Amino acid sequence: MSHVLEPLSPPYPPAIAEILSRYPKGEDDYLLSLFRVFANSERFLKNKGVANLLDAESPLTIRQREIIILRVTANTKCEYEWGVHVSIFSRAAGLSEDEVRSTLTPDPGDSWNAEERLLIRVVDDLCEHARIQSAQLGPFQAAFSKEAQLEIMSLVGHYHLISYVANSTGLPPEPMAARFS
User: Fold this and answer.
1) Exposure winner among 28, 33, 72, 173, fewest CB in 10 A?
2) What is the dihedral of CA 78, 60, 95, 180, to 10 degrees?
3) Which pLDDT does position 54 carry in this prediction?
4) What are phi and psi of 119, to 5 degrees?
5) In the chain, which stretches have pLDDT less than 50?
6) Nearest CA-CA partner of 78 in 181, 175, 168
7) pLDDT at residue number 50
8) pTM of this prediction?
9) Closest C-alpha among 9, 156, 177, 168 to residue 80
10) How many other C-beta atoms lie within 10 A of the C-beta of residue 67?
11) What's the CA gap between 15 and 156, in Å, rounded?
12) Alpha carbon 163 to chain centroid distance?
């Protein structure tokens, strides 16, 4: 199967190298393949590659953000990004192994509290219908501030974009990443 884009390898053109220097890196200065795919376009890399939605000023907790990201990437069958987030962020977000596994199932079960179950249903609605269905709308508006509501919708959209890029480029899982079971 051929893929749309391949990850760039060093040495990078100077402008690309400068932008990539601001991207998060792993051990031994490892740069994720996804970020190196973004490097095929300086404009994309600079403006759209990684939205500023995972910062400390977010109205969402890290746990809420990771639930959203794991559910979106599971829904889009993006093993690459799901695995990166499971391996790097799930423990910091306080997610149990059962909760992580349940993000891959149609019915995530009872391991979540009521607000988290609502959040998962909202993510599923946005992924399937590109809107929040009426059954979830009132509870969603009551449970989350307007800022949080916008952040949730933005994260769902952003991680669809990430999934499209990772899936279309056929990125293999990172060496440290979890895998779909």
Assistant:
1) 28
2) 0
3) 63
4) -60, -45
5) none
6) 168
7) 54
8) 0.84
9) 177
10) 28
11) 30
12) 8
pLDDT of residue 4: 64
Cα separation, 104 vs 75, whole angstroms:
7
Residue with tokens 């990430």: 162
- The whole-number pLDDT of residue 147 equals 87
Secondary structure (DSSP) of the chain: ---S-----SSPPHHHHHHHTTS---GGG---HHHHHHTT-HHHHHHTSS-S-SSTT-SS-HHHHHHHHHHHHHHTT-HHHHHHHHHHHTTTTT--HHHHHHTTSSS--SSS-HHHHHHHHHHHHHHHHSS--HHHHHHHHHHS-HHHHHHHHHHHHHHHHHHHHHHHTTPPPPTT-----
DSSP label at residue 169: T
Q: Which two tokens stand for residue 71?
A: 């559910």
